Amino acid sequence: MKKLVFVMMAMLLASGAVFAESAKGVSQKRDMAITWNPLSLLGLTLAGSYGIALHEKVALIVPLGLTYVNAGVKTDTGSSSSYLFGIQSGLGARFYLSGAAFQDGLYIQPNASIGWLKFGSSGGSSLTLGANALFGYSWVWDSGFMMNLAGGAGYVYSSIGTDSNAGALKIDGILPALEFAIGYAW
Q1: What is the per-residue pLDDT across 65-88, written as a single tens digit (0 to 9) for each?
Q2: Are 186 and 165 in contact (CB under 8 A)?
Q3: How far is CA 64 from CA 61, 93, 105, in A?
Q4: Residue 11 near residue 19 (C-beta atoms within 8 A)
Q5: Helix or strand or coil: residue 123?
Q6: Which one of 40, 58, 140, 183 has the largest count of C-beta atoms within 10 Å of its C-beta?
């Protein structure tokens, strides 16, 4: 009985390896992709990116993020409300180390970004500049569904101030950079 189970498992593994090897050459070429980062919602931002293949192993990546929060407070003396609005964008290049653009494979992705936030009726705003480098892996299914997972480090510079006191607070430094994105490639 043990021999029969062992032989059946060996046959199953061998047939799976043959099927996987034959499916490798079937991948279709994909030139564009749209992705969304669900983790960005933790920072109250809707973030995604658009990518277009420039070469077999190079893709141009254009990220975009939008932030909007409206909050109100009611007290015995009255109520007040405020909002936070922001937009972020940038430019990046994804260099695939294994596989073609928008296919399964390792990649390195340097990015540059700029962002602006407006803090409600107080007149405060923030300008943020950043640059980072990511090292990650991209999975692309036959249907076009894709998932990216990457990590790295980046430099961020942010100037926060009010209309009357521009640049009141400046923040800069090296921070970790993470990417978890799901999307579609075609």
Answers
A1: 999 988 777 777 777 777 889 999
A2: no
A3: 10, 15, 24
A4: no
A5: coil
A6: 140
